[in-house]
Every structure is written in structure tokens, then in C-alpha cells.
Amino acid sequence: MAQKKILVTGGAGFIGGNFVQFMVNKYPDYAVYNLDLLTYAGDLTKHRELEEENNYFFVKADIADREAIMTLFETEKFDYVVHFAAESHVDRSITDPEVFVRTNVMGTQVLLDASRKSGVTKFVHVSTDEVYGELDFDPNTFFTEETPLQPNSPYSASKASSDLLVRAYHETYGLPINITRCSNNYGPYHFPEKLIPLTISRVLNDEKVPVYGDGKNIRDWLHVLDHCAAIDLVLHEGVNGEVYNVGGHNERTNLEVVKTIINTLGKPEDLIEFVTDRLGHDKRYAIDPTKLENLGWKPTYTFETGIAQTIQWYLDNKWWWEQIISGEYQNYFIKQYNIK
């Protein structure tokens, strides 16, 4: 039986990078291709150990570069595509929406064309609960797969657009697809601009931790390794054309998350600094993952076990996040791959 080939786009990012490691280790009989443009959030140092594995391959490319993507798909004949690659930082989307449309919408369309023309067996599009908009603070309300899309930021609008394109390629061309929509992820290798790693790194350096508004915005937190297991299940067992929500059953306010980290590290809460709220800041996200659980998935991390593991990981791996903050990680691309 021929070795299956899986293309993971955005595999130098946070969730995609963890998924690459997950798949390389779990499926030694799969050839795992990590495609990434290596923008500011792309980091290959996390994959140093994988570079010696014979089933791991890195490809530097822009998903919106039609010629490069078409050539890659024609050459490699991928069985599966798991599409993470996206601009994902909400604040950056507010200041520069255009790059989000180019990557998240146009890039997805190029990948869909390439997948359709090359006969990909399954295209899994990894999206976000932010496409649903916001919930009020009623603890009995949740996003389901039937919740209308009502994105409130340029980032979430670009992701909703790409979701609809994926659905359209399934309905129009018969492309086998699944869409997953996840809650906020956390865990190892999370880029330090995001709330949890930003808080950990700043607290360890006795620096102020910015919290938007009053800190009462609520998010459902999902450990990245639980998310990887969910995507693996959807890739292999998901019903063609279906959407699956992935949530952790771990709702916390942003202020609770920050205080948990500060207290775990034994630092004073006066490190918290409330700052002007983000434009269009959604109040609450919460996911009902029943459909995915009926497929056979359950999260293995509670927030308490997951945040403790994550904090310990950042304590044990200062080498990683310190070189991310300093920018030194970008020199690794040049030394190892002779690319810029």
C-alpha cells in the first residue's frame, strides 16, 4: 500500500505546528508535509527534532501563490489537506484588514482549486468560533453548528468567508470536506503575543500584564493537544460535508485566566494593568461540542490541569519563547534551510 501524503498548511504556527508533531509521531506511515510562508508568527525551531524523521517534509510557500500551489499539488498528489494557514491576530486585523482577506480568503480559494483538480480525498478546514459572533453572559447559551455566522472583526469575517468558500466547493464541485470551529486554544509553542503566553512571559519578567477593559470577557479554553486529537478524528471519521465544533468546556474570564497564572507563579496581582478595550471586543464565546463528542471525541484536559501543564512547559522551555521575543528564531530559517 502506497504511503499516504498529508499536507498541513500553516504548520510552523501554533496549532498547525502542534498538529504536525502529533501526526508525524502518531502516523509513521504518513508523509507529513508542512507548508508555511514563515511570516512573523511562523517558527521552525519547534520542529528541530522532526527534521531527522523520514516522514516529515517542509515546504516554504504562500498559499495565495496560485502557480506555486498548483505545481506542488501536481507534483506530490496529496491524499489529505488540513488547512490551518491564516492570519489570526484580531488586533492586527483591525489595523491591516487587507492582508487577512488575501491570506484567509484568497489563499483558501487557491488551496480549494488545487485540491479539487488533484483529487484530494479529504480537505479539512480549521476555523474558529469567532465566526459566530458573540454570546451574552447567559451560561445556558452556546454556539452550535447551526448558529448563524455573524463575525464582528475583520479577522473573523475573513474566516467566515473562507468557511463559506469551503462549503461552496463541496456543494458545487463535490470536494470532500469538513470544517472545524474551535474555541480559544492554549498550550506549548503558543506565540507570545497571545493572552496566556504573553501573561506567562511578562509575569516571569515582573512586567505589567495588559488586560482589555474590565477583563470580564469570557472565552472557552481548549488545550491544543485536545484540538489536535479532534482534527485527527474529523479527518478520518468525519461525515463528508459536515461542520464540527471543538470546545473544551472550560469557560473563564480573561481576568480569571491572568490571575490564575499570576498566582501559580507566586507573583503579585498588581502586575495587572487594565487598558482601553479592543474595538468590537466580543463578550463571550462558548461552544457546544456534542456533535463531535458523538463522533467519539472528548477533551482530556480540564482548564486546571491544562494551564498547570502549560505554565510548566513555559518554565521548562524558556529557550523557545525568549528567542521568539528577541526575534532570534528567524535566523534558524536562514541557517537550517538557507531561506529568508
Describe this structure in words.
Helices cover 43% and strands 17% of the residues. The chain is globular. It has a 7-stranded parallel β-sheet with strand order 3-2-1-4-5-6-10, with helices on both faces. The chain has a single domain (4-186, 222-250, 280-302, 329-337), classed as 3-Layer(aba) Sandwich (Rossmann fold). The two termini are 37 Å apart. With 340 residues, the protein is an alpha/beta fold. Helix 1 (14-26) packs across helix 7 (224-237), helix 4 (97-118) runs parallel beside helix 5 and helix 6 runs parallel beside helix 8.
Tags for this entry?
340 residues; alpha/beta; Rossmann fold; seven-stranded parallel sheet; three-stranded mixed sheet; 12 helices; 17% strand; globular; dTDP-glucose 4,6-dehydratase; lyase
Summarize the structure.
It is built from twelve helices and twelve strands. By secondary structure, the chain is of the alpha/beta class.
